[in-house]
Design goal:
Strand content: 25-35%
Number of helices: 4
CATH topology of the largest domain: Alpha-D-Glucose-1,6-Bisphosphate, Chain A, domain 4
CATH class of the largest domain: Alpha Beta
Helix content: 25-40%
Structural class: alpha+beta
Shape: flat
Number of domains: 2
Order of helices and strands: HEHEEEHEEEH
């Protein structure tokens, strides 16, 4: 009798364990199915955009603006803007194309914006896209030169585009002038200066 009861009890125990395992397995399969559904059908979370450093927020390959002004007004506004910062012109030439529209190129001389061993390095660092790495170098000046291209359009507008590059003289290690890319801060300031000078030269 005891043996029979023990067998029945053992059978019930084994049956309960099997039921428990089956329930646990079914629950696990449902959770996996739900997770797979979420991965397949829920929209992907956007990765946060990498924040641009402040010194690179104004960088562009070139700087452009279209003016509803005559060619001569835009041309003189560029020259006045260079004169405002004490920068000379090294080259200027414009002419008419085959259709009678004006187009020209104007290049500035080297415009000095920093001078002296104490302040030049920080100024160059502020306006550089990527400054040359010269260990122990001592920079004694910082300069920028601009190349402007101005073109008259068929609709009567005038398109301005320009680029610039930085340079500086290193006086301790290399004793040379080095050239590299600007980060766009000075170019942006120059474009704003030109736009501000357009109405001034229009009335001259």
């Amino acid at each position: 009798m005891k043996t029979k009861v023990w067998l029945i009890g053992s059978f019930i125990f084994v049956w309960l364990c099997i039921c428990f395992d089956l329930c646990a397995q079914e629950k696990k399969e449902k959770e996996e199915e739900q997770l797979q559904f979420q991965e397949e059908f829920q929209p992907e979370k956007k990765q946060p955009e990498e924040e641009i450093p402040d010194r690179l927020k104004y960088y562009k390959e070139k700087y452009e603006e279209t003016f509803n002004e005559p060619f001569d007004v835009v041309w003189r506004a560029i020259k006045k803007s260079l004169d405002d910062i004490g920068c000379m012109i090294s080259y200027e030439k414009y002419q008419q194309d085959d259709e009678g529209f004006l187009a020209g190129t104007l290049k500035s001389d080297f415009c000095v914006f920093a001078m002296g061993k104490d302040t030049t390095f920080q100024a160059l660092k502020r306006y550089s896209y990527e400054m040359p790495l010269i260990r122990g170098g001592i920079w004694i000046n910082g300069r920028i030169n601009y190349t402007f291209r101005v073109k008259e359009n068929k609709d009567g507008t005038v398109h301005l585009s320009f680029t610039a590059r930085l340079s500086g003289f290193e006086d301790f290690v290399t004793h040379q002038v080095h050239f590299w890319k600007s980060n766009g801060i000075l170019e942006t300031k120059m474009l704003e200066r030109i736009k501000g000078n357009v109405p001034k030269v229009r009335t001259e």
